Structure formats: C-alpha cells, structure tokens
Amino acid sequence: MSNASGLYRAISRSMLGRYAVYAVNLLSMMVLARLFSPETFGTVAAIMVFFTFFRLMAEAGLGPAIINIDNISVEDRNGLFGLTITIGFVLAIMFAALGPIFLMFYDMARVDEVVPYIAVSLFVFAAGIVPTAFLLREQAFYRIATAGLLAEVVSTASAIALLQIIDPLHALAAKGAVSAVALVSVSWYFSSATQFGRPLLGARFSAIIPLLSFSSYQFGFNFINYFSRNLDNILVGKYMGAGMLGAYDKAYQLMRYPLMLLTFAMTPAIQPVIRKHSGDPVLVEAIHSEFVFKLSLIGALAGLLIFLLSDWIVLIILGDQWLNVIPIIRILAIAIPAQVVLSTSGSFFQAMSRADLLFLSGILSAIVMVGAIIVGVSERDIELLCWCLVVAFHINFLQAYFLLYRKIFVVPLRKHLIRMTPAAFIVIGMVWFAW
Q1: Residues of the chain by 3-state class (helix, strand, coil), percent to 5
Q2: I need a labelling partner for 69 at 20 to 30 A (CA). Which of 240, 250, 319, 365 fits?
Q3: What stretches pass through the bilayer (predicted)?
Q4: HSE of 266 in the Cβ direction (CA atoms, 13 Å)?
Q5: pTM of this prediction?
Q6: Measured between alpha carbons, how far is 127 from 139 in angstroms, rounded to an integer?
Q7: 178 near 157, Cβ under 8 Å?
Q8: Are 218 and 61 in contact (CB under 8 A)?
C-alpha cells in the first residue's frame, strides 16, 4: 500500500535515529546500576515522579498542537517560546519550594536534596517544548536523535565524574539537569533549519489562543494519564520504601525498553504522516490495521523473550545487587504486547484531530489503572501490584480501540481484535506458565 509505505519510511527514520539513543541509554543504565545503590536510585525516582507531573503542566498539550498547525508568524512563534519559558520558570520556583512537602510526604531520608536539581531540569525542559515540536513537525528524527545522544553521553559522563567528588545522591540527581541542558541546547540550535525557524524570546503570549481547543484536550488526557501511569511509583515509594521503589522502577524501565525500541521510536512519525490523510478514515483504518498487526507480532515476541530470559537480562544489565527485579519484570513482560500496540493509538487520535476522544479514553484508563494500583499497594505486595497492572493494561487496550474503531473508523472492533489473535495466544501462554 503506497500510503502505508510513506508511514513506514517515516517510522524507519525515527527508529534508526532513536535506536542509537536507546543503545547509549542502555549502556548508561548498565554502568550506573553498578555505581549507585537501589536506595539512591529509589530516592531520585521518588522525586522524578513529581517532575513528570510538573513537566506535563509546562507542556500543557502544546507540542502536539504545534505539530498540527500549517503556518505561524515570527511574532507568534517567539510568543509561544517566551510563554513556555515564563511558565517553566514559575513552575521551577514552585517545584523548588515544595522540597519540605516532598520530605514530609515520603518520610524518606534526603529526598528533599534531589529537588533543586530537578527544578533546573523542569525549567530547561520548558524551554525546549517549542523547538522540539518544530523538529518533530519536520520529521527531523536524525537531528532529534543527535540531541538525545549527546545529552545521554554528556550527562552520564558528568554523573560518573561527579561521583568522584560529591555525594552519590547529588551526583545521580545532577545527571537529569545536565541531560536537559544538553538536549534543549542542541534542539534549539537545530530548529533553525525548520520551516518555522529558531524561536527567540517574544512577548505575544496570545499566540497560544488558536491552539487551545486542541491543546486543552491533549493536556487533559496527559493530566489524567499521568496519575494512571505514576501513582504506582508514588505509592510504592511512600509505603514500601526507597529500596523497593528502586527495584520496581528498574523493572519498569527494563519492561519499557521494547516499547522504547518499537512504539516510542515510531510514534513521533505517525501523527505528521497520518494527518495528511485525516479526511479519509477508510484509508487511515487500512494503514492502521496493517501496521498494528505487524507491531503486535513483534511486541509478542519481545514480551516472550523478556519473560523467558528475565534472569539473564537483570544480571547482565543491572548486576547481582538487583536480583529482586527478576520476578517483577517477568510479570510485567506479559503486558508488553498490549502496551506495544496501545502506545501507538494516541497518535492516530491526534492525527485525526480527535483529542476529545483521546481525553475520554484517558479518563477511562485512569479509572482502571488507579483501581489496579490501589489494590496492589494496599496489600504491600509488589508482585500482586504487577499482576493488577497487567490486567489493567489489557482492559485499557480494549476500551481505547473500541473508541478508535467505533467513533473514528466507524467499523466494528472485532475486525481489529481478530488480527490480534496470534499475539493473544502468546500472552495466554505466558500467563499459564507464570501461574
């Protein structure tokens, strides 16, 4: 299919660029996991959960909204850039002031010492929203990958160097700030080659008004999705401690690597390509059906390999101080096939300009995920929590694709589910062996 081939070409460019970044990320994890303790990782992870929330507030759905626009004046471009920097500065100050609150909430020693580094990361992230969206809009995936690659190399080297002269907790916390500075600096430099050009500070904050109808729904989805995807880390850190949070966070990172290698590398390419055909839902459904069938098979294979090789994966990547990660990642691997496919659905909602349905799907997902997390954490059982999450991911898979197929493609959901049958058999097999 010629139209699908255009999507695959864009995806291949995105994946090739991002794979280099992911390879360096993996090497960084392997090195740092042997230099820093699970407790240190858990303390930083406890604050990173709230950084994710504030980063969401700073972005406010603006990135996808920018990708969808066709033209923008220089004054509006600079106004958007100035607005994001202003919002980032205000949010960074607020975040830094919350240090004592975080310490009181977690009752975790030294967690407040991480806060200043994360506040810097938040401000710098906000500065990168507009130039990064320009690069994504242009499908400049190699340049985006170059920025990510440099950021990971520089930040990992800085963490190792700082470990020799300052406390390990501060060295690891500083890695995020250094990474953000490097990433945004390079992205801003590369944005000069885009259609809209390199943004400069501007005062026309009203430039955001035409984007609000799209970005508000996108922000609403992101806001709700945050709680459904991060409440587990918050509650594990509060009720099970820094060590268990460190192990859980590392297991989740390893489980997410197939998502990073597959869907996270693909999704930046989907929205810019599919939006060109947004007026033809029949064509888009045909492209989607072919695409996710292949993706489901790859995701099922990835999940099965992690399920079978979890002990070797943990020993090779993390080392023997992380053995308690093995049973956690084995259970989470069962959800990989559903997550691999589900992670691409949002880009199709966005490309078809149905952020309202994406928002609705996010509400339903949040209800299911929060319920699952509460059940798992209330029992103080990390393995039960993982099983609850596996069930929740599959329920959300069904509701998201029901909305996509019935409301946008206007065809029965069974057409999609039948194509998922091979992957479903593999998931059932993993569940059977796990029990």
Answers
A1: 90, 0, 10
A2: 365
A3: 19-37, 43-67, 79-102, 114-136, 148-166, 172-190, 202-221, 254-274, 295-319, 325-345, 357-378, 384-405, 417-434
A4: 24
A5: 0.71
A6: 20
A7: no
A8: yes
